[in-house]
Amino acid sequence: MLRVNVVMVIIALLAGCTMVKRPLPGPAQPAPDPVVQQRPPGPLPPSTRPAYNLAGYPKAAQEGYVDGCETAKQSAYGFKDKKRYAADTQYQMGWNDGFSICRGKRQ
Fold it and tell me: Which residue ranges in the chain fall short of pLDDT 70?
């Protein structure tokens, strides 16, 4: 009889251990979207602007490529000039190309 009681106590203790609720970790905060962040208008100073070999492309396409590529790499230089993107097809083409090419290299 004593053996049965000891076994029942052990089973009750083990069952109680499995019912302890532990708090689940909260959802992770999403990273801020670099496209939404704004930087002051105008080109970056030459000393800080990342260098890419884009010789032969129009200036607007070069600037768009750098902005798109840096956005894809989520660097501090990532930027999308929304007004210029909507109005300047060269900038738009450069931004799209830079973003897609540099995003592909990251993955």
Answer: 12-49, 105-107
DSSP the chain: -HHHHHHHHHHHHHHHHHT---PPPPPPPPPPPTTT----SSPPPTTTSPP---TTS-HHHHHHHHHHHHHHTT-TT----HHHHHH-HHHHHHHHHHHHHHHHHH-
Place of tokens 């600037």: 63
Distance (Å, whole) CA 66 – CA 80: 10
Query: What percent of the chain has a predicted confidence (pLDDT) above 70?
Result: 59
C-alpha distances (whole Å) from 58 to each of 32, 64, 66 are 31, 10, 13
The set of residues, in sequence order, having a beta carbon less than 8 Å from that of 86 and lying 6+ positions away, is 92
pLDDT at 78: 84
Q: How far apart are alpha carbons 23 and 10 in whole angstroms?
A: 26
Is pTM beyond 0.85 here? Answer: no
